[in-house]
């Protein structure tokens, strides 16, 4: 065994040199690719994916060369066959991990979801902070960080709130039945048009429609456009509701609250015995 080890010593040294050279080559290739990808304008997560795949490919090739140097009986065909069988076995053992990995690659190539977007999926809503190959980091509006497997985002309906810069918001404003509908509509429109957070252009009009005869009021559907971020929606909703309330109060238009009317029937006629007892009392 000692003589065999001494005989293989040159091969072991060469194999170690190959691994060291592979590490240097992988580092240099990743640095060059990272520098070149910065000029392409690709998203950072996609750049990291390409750099990682290049590093993996170089390391796999380096280990194969080192194995052939140490064991000359190995051939590239047998190594590739063994690598294929091993890949299938590893794939079955780590099915969920590879599912998230493939889903992450597809998500990274998507243009719809980007870092910084606000999304909602399966009750999870927040801003996309980081997209990696296996998982996505979502920062909720209350500050909590949620790490979501990429397979969940890929296989379930995904709502991208900030896909467009503007978002349409609708609130319901009710006026009393005794008020003039056209006058109320004009007052509400003027109030909404005076809000700073409301977009005012022909492509994104302010729409106000009488919606229904409700229990205590005639309801108006008030629709306008504002920023797509959740904080933009909250600010705009607050400003519009406050402005509509002030405008209706200033115009003397009643905003009703639910009324309840109780109707009683006439008292039932009393029987003779009951009448006499009632008179004695």
Automatic annotation (TrEMBL):
Which superkingdom? Bacteria
Q: List GO molecular-function terms, semicolon-separated.
A: mechanosensitive monoatomic ion channel activity
The Mechanosensitive ion channel MscS domain is annotated at 96-157
Q: Membrane spanning segments where?
A: 12-33, 49-71, 83-109
Entry's Pfam families? MS_channel_1st_1, MS_channel_2nd, MS_channel_3rd
Oligomer status and interactors = Homoheptamer.
What protein does this entry describe? Small-conductance mechanosensitive channel
Q: Which organism is it from?
A: Notoacmeibacter marinus
């Amino acid at each position: 065994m000692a003589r065999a080890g001494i005989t293989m010593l040159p091969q072991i040294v060469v194999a170690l040199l190959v691994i060291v050279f592979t590490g240097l080559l992988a580092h240099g290739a990743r640095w060059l690719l990272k520098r070149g990808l910065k000029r392409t304008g690709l998203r950072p997560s996609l750049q990291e994916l390409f750099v990682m795949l290049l590093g993996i490919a170089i390391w796999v090739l380096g280990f194969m060369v080192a194995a052939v140097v140490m064991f000359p009986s190995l051939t590239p065909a047998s190594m590739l066959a063994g690598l294929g069988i091993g890949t299938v076995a590893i794939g079955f053992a780590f099915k969920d991990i590879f599912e998230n990995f493939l889903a992450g690659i597809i998500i990274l190539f998507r243009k719809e979801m980007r870092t910084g977007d606000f999304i909602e999926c399966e009750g999870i809503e927040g801003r996309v902070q980081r997209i990696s190959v296996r998982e996505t980091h979502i920062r909720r509006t209350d500050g909590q960080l949620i790490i979501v497997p990429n397979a969940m985002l890929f296989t379930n309906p995904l709502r991208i709130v900030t896909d467009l810069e503007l978002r349409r918001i609708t609130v319901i404003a009710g006026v009393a039945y005794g008020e003039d509908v056209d006058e109320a509509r004009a007052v509400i429109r003027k109030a909404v048009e005076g809000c700073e957070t409301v977009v005012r252009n022909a492509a994104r009009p302010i729409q106000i429609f009488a919606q229904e005869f409700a229990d205590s009021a005639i309801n108006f559907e008030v629709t306008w456009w504002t920023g797509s971020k959740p904080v933009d929606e909250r600010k705009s909703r607050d400003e519009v509701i406050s402005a509509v309330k002030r405008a209706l109060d200033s115009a003397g238009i009643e905003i009703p609250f639910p009324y309840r009317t109780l109707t009683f029937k006439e008292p039932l006629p009393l029987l003779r015995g009951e009448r006499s007892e009632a008179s004695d009392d």
